[in-house]
Every structure is written in C-alpha cells, then in structure tokens.
Amino acid sequence: MAIPTAEEGVRPAREGDVPAILELAAALRLELTPMRGGGIWSVRESRPEPLEAAYKALLDRTDALMVVGTIDDTPVGFGVGEIETLQDGTRLGVVSELFVDPEARAVGVGEAMLGALVDFCTAAGCIGVDAWALPGHRAAKNFFEESGFTARAIVMHHRLPGE
C-alpha cells in the first residue's frame, strides 16, 4: 500500500487567499519584530495597515506579483515581488515579503515561491532581484544565499537613547 505524500505548489494569489495571507503576515510580524533589526523593520519596511486593503491592492497591480505556497492546495506561505524603476530607467525586482509557516518549512515551498517571484522579475526585464533578511535571521540569510543571492549592501544602525 502506497503512503500518500503531500504535494507542494505555488500559484498567483487570488482574492479568496487574502484571509490566509493576513494570518501568515501576522505570523511574519510576530517572528521578525523581536529579532535584531526587527523593531525598525516593523515600522519602516513592513507593509502598512490596513493590511487587508494593502494585500488586495497587490492583486490588481501589473508591477507586482503575490503568490501563495501550498501543501495539498492549502496556503502555508506567501510572497510578494514588486518591480521598481531605477533612476536610469532600468528595473529592479524586490522580494518585499516571503514567509512560510514554520511547520511547513524545509519541504520546498519557499524555494518554489522565490522561483516564481524571480521568474516574474525576469519576465519584467529586471536587471536583478533584491530580497530582505534581518541581521539576526540566519536561516533567512542562508535560504537566500542557497538560492543564489549575495549581499549587495549592509544597512548600519545606531540606536539613540530612548529607542
């Protein structure tokens, strides 16, 4: 008797996925905010409230792609890729969010979502793709490096009294 295996997948997000994406986005914030650099990330780089409207707006943009990663058609992760036009007119892809539920990691969902976002940026004629990893999130840094990303900048921060 064959043992059934879970099937991983990735697809463009649909409006019906927004409630699951909101849950995953909340988990993303809970994971990153307490990490080194996460406090500033949560009020600078994270997507602004109201999140439901922000994620729904991404669905209609031609310069962005939001994907969901699935196991047996159940969303367990999401990612967002956006196209940014640089000063010289070239385009840069930016993976602004990529998150997989901790219980669904290490099975290929994150890699599949990142691959779909890189393909989107390639098709849009981007010269490269940037992605964020907090300095305290070694697993994210390793994930991106294993996917062919290298650091191109390091943001330095000096805490002031009261921060």
Tell me what the structure shows.
The structure is a single chain. By secondary structure, the protein is an alpha+beta fold. It has one domain (8-146): Gcn5-related N-acetyltransferase (GNAT) (Aminopeptidase), CATH 3.40.630.30. 34% of the residues lie in helices and 25% in strands. It contains five helices and five strands. It has helices spanning 18-32, 38-44, 51-60, 109-123, 138-146, and strands at 8-12, 64-71, 74-85, 91-100, 126-131. Strands 1-2-3-4-5 form a five-stranded mixed sheet, sandwiched between helices. The longest helix is centred in the N-terminal third of the chain and has 15 residues, at 18-32.
CATH-defined architecture: 3-Layer(aba) Sandwich
Number of domains: 1
Helix percent band: 25-40%
Distance between the termini: 60 Å
Quaternary structure: single chain
Q: What is the element string, with H for helices and E for strands?
A: EHHHEEEHEH
What is the topological layout?
Elements: E1 8-12, H1 18-32, H2 38-44, H3 51-60, E2 64-71, E3 74-85, E4 91-100, H4 109-123, E5 126-131, H5 138-146
Parallel strand pairs: 4-5
Antiparallel strand pairs: 1-2, 2-3, 3-4
